[in-house]
């Protein structure tokens, strides 16, 4: 099938939704479909046989887009809509796939052009604007809730990315087919770093011989990075040679967190790396003794957890629903979402390296069975075959 995919995201960029979109596209191409992607002007080039990327015109002054809702998304999404409309006018597509708020575009365009519409529900949009602190206005939140329900009810199929989102989608409709495919695909083709590369990285980051605790991802408020920073003094006191590496974040976020670390007197124990390319992630994972996910709120499963599990390294995570949908006490050390909880967890793992190693191995084995590329592709193929049958029936 020839698929028009609409993704209102900076593609490609090293963060959750763009990663997920990349892997869904890759799965579609493996099945023999072709994909035309309509997306933002921002993002690194991606070359995959069977994929064509159509980007909106550059908007002066918009060089990056923060995670979650923002004012910048309004003009960007408007241009995405008109570009998608133009593509449908000049080219014949068998169906449409949409991500996040583009589901609303899919409802409109599906009605105009009579194309089947598959919606990828990465989050509950109304919950997202609350957790990201975009607005506290009850009227606006209610409006977004209504739009989210309309998208789910009018789509011809919905792919939810975790159990919580699946439950939310099912509560909104009794007719639309709902499927769950966790965003668990990881790029298993990335080469492992050599010992020389790992040693060089330790030297460049001036890590010495001390243990390394690694966080990767965005630095939005719901990620709990403030809690993590405030947990470090207690760990630093118990292990003066400890090193925390934080990969990700935008410049303003890093500057604020660095100032916080300096105020707490732990600046020597923390390295802020900023956003790094995907192919460098194995190097940082190899450096780590413990992987961190200090998320403080939300119900969406963090994409990083699947990569963490595959690494075979021990995971320290807060015990909130977004994380326990994937993690358990057998695959991670789960602690309260507080600075004290994160500090006690880190100290416990550092004091018992054999248990920490066993925890990491449990996670790796669990990921191989439940969250491999093979499992992701199998689930994706089942959903696409069912959806394709509906498309062909409609065309007939």
UniProtKB/TrEMBL annotation:
SUPFAM superfamilies found in the cross-reference section: UDP-Glycosyltransferase/glycogen phosphorylase
Residues covered by the Glycosyltransferase subfamily 4-like N-terminal domain: 20-183
Pfam families recorded: Glyco_transf_4, Glycos_transf_1
Domain called Glycosyl transferase family: residue spans: 205-364
UniProt keyword terms in alphabetical order: Hydrolase
UniProt GO MF annotations: glycosyltransferase activity; hydrolase activity
Listed name of the protein: Glycoside hydrolase
UniProt lineage: Bacteria, Bacillati, Chloroflexota, Ktedonobacteria, Ktedonobacterales
């Amino acid at each position: 099938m020839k698929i028009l995919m609409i993704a209102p995201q900076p593609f490609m960029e090293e963060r959750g939704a763009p990663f997920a979109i990349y892997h869904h596209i890759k799965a579609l191409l493996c099945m023999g479909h072709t994909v035309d992607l309509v997306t933002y002007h921002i993002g690194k080039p991606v070359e995959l046989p069977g994929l064509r990327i159509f980007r909106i015109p550059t908007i002066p002054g918009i060089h990056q887009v923060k995670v979650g809702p923002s004012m910048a998304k309004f003009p960007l999404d408007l241009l995405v809509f008109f570009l998608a409309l133009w593509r449908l006018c000049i080219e014949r597509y068998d169906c449409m796939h949409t991500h996040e708020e583009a589901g609303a575009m899919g409802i409109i365009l599906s009605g105009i052009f009579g194309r089947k519409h598959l919606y990828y529900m990465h989050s509950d949009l109304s919950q997202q604007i609350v957790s990201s602190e975009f607005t506290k206005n009850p009227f606006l939140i209610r409006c977004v809730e209504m739009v989210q329900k309309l998208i789910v009810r009018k789509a011809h199929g919905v792919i939810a990315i975790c159990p919580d989102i699946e439950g939310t989608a099912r509560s909104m409709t009794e007719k639309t087919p709902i499927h769950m495919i966790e965003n668990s695909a990881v790029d298993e083709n990335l080469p492992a770093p050599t010992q020389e590369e790992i040693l060089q990285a330790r030297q460049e980051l001036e890590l010495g011989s001390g243990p390394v605790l690694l966080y990767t991802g965005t630095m939005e408020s719901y990620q709990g990075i403030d809690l993590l920073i405030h947990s470090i003094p207690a760990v630093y006191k118990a292990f003066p040679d400890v090193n925390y590496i934080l990969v990700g974040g935008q410049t303003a976020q890093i500057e604020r967190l660095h100032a916080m670390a300096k105020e707490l007197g732990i600046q020597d124990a923390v390295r802020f790396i900023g956003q790094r390319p995907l192919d460098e992630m194995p190097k940082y994972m190899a450096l780590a003794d413990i992987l961190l996910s200090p998320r403080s709120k939300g119900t969406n499963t963090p994409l990083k957890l699947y990569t963490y599990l595959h690494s075979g390294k021990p995971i320290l995570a807060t015990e909130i629903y977004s994380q326990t949908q994937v993690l358990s006490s057998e695959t991670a050390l789960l602690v309260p979402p507080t600075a004290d909880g994160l500090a006690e967890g880190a100290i416990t793992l550092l004091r018992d390296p054999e248990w920490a190693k066993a925890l990491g191995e449990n996670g790796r084995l669990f990921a191989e069975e439940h969250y491999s590329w093979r499992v992701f592709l199998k689930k994706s193929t089942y959903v696409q075959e069912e959806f394709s049958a509906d498309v062909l029936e409609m065309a007939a």
